[in-house]
Please model this.
Amino acid sequence: MQPSNTEMDFSIACALYFAARGEGQSSDKSKNAGQAYATPARVLFSGLGADELFGGYTRHATAFDRRGEPGLVDELELDFKRLGKRNLGRDDRVISHWGKEVRYPFLDEDLVKWVLSMPVWEKCGFGQSQKHSVLDEGSLEASKKLLRLAAWRLGLRGAAAEKKRAIQFGARTAKMKMGKTKGTQTLS
Model:
């Protein structure tokens, strides 16, 4: 994980460490549920870059609410520019501990070039009307709207409608407590 050294870095590193290990218990609904499982996979896929390119963080909505589209564009640019320093090295070091490699499809050069050339309102739906009471593609969350619409149209409606959950919270590795520890706090 070094030189990354914050509470958030540690929480994310823990989630990636155990995911990359590839061992656990089967959770399918067949007779094999609960049996020990180890994956033979040597390459892992990461969604890193999706939030930074398509406005997936709460701070992106906050930037839009406070400063409109220019504020959102500035925040997206800042996040994307610091991906290498902030995330890539940490994630690669943790995953490679298990002798595995990681691929980042959202950081493909051609995809990044295409997404960066798009107007921000085509990537995310902040400020767009969402007056739908039943679940349809108009009721999808504003964050990563383009990705959610693509998933919806491909028939992955559950995935498209899923609420954003950070890896450290979804994996329950975060030890940050509200009001006590901030993710940016340096580890002692």
